[in-house]
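Supplementary notes for students who missed Thursday's class. We covered one full example, reproduced here. Read the sequence, then the structure, then the short commentary at the end.
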Amino acid sequence: MVIGNERAEMEMARLHAFAEELNRDVNLRGYLVVYSGGRFSRGHILRKVHGYLDRLVNDRAVSPNRVEIIEAGEREVYATELWLVPNGGTFPIRPVAESVKAPLMFDRVFYGVGCEPEVSIDLYELDEGLKFWAKALAENSHANGWIIVNPKRRSSRGSALRVANRTKRMLMQNYKIGSQRLMIRVGEWQDECSNVEFWVVPAGMVPSRATPNNGMHPTANSVDLTRET
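Structure (token representation):
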């Protein structure tokens, strides 16, 4: 069974069918094998698949010890495969470690009144997105993190800067990421919802100025890059 880029109702239907199989047979183990790709950033995909796990555990009473998430690399389009494997069986797909060699917009999280999705399984809160970004920074210990807040029109740049500073403090306090690895910027005005971009960037590069965002793709250049001298 595969979940692609589809409506939340279809995602829930597939997850419920998956949960029924797991609950029917305690000798089975479940795997959520996620492939990044298409217009979704890596962080967005992780928020999505961990939302699936949350749905299985909290809504369908599946034990969290019976389901494992595996990041399996990239494809042309995003997909999450739902696997059922007998306990003790060998699972054929191994996790793929992803190292950052070029600036990567890891995630973009929207915030503010009226910006929550009406129906969604994804984890969409700003705080929830931080833990996946922190893990990526920990895995790429020689990379730095950029926090770029793009505020909604008619809001103040001061409030955007406060969001950026609060996010930085949370990352330092809760995930022990050093302040010297983190940079904050206020970016472009947004017509609808404010958002925060989380970047993972090789050491030695800094954003020279914010420029208009050009989409959700992980390699979208929403900042100009200059190398430190």
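Commentary. The first strand starts at residue 2 and ends at 3. Confidence is low (pLDDT under 50) at residues 209-229. If anything here is unclear, bring it to office hours.
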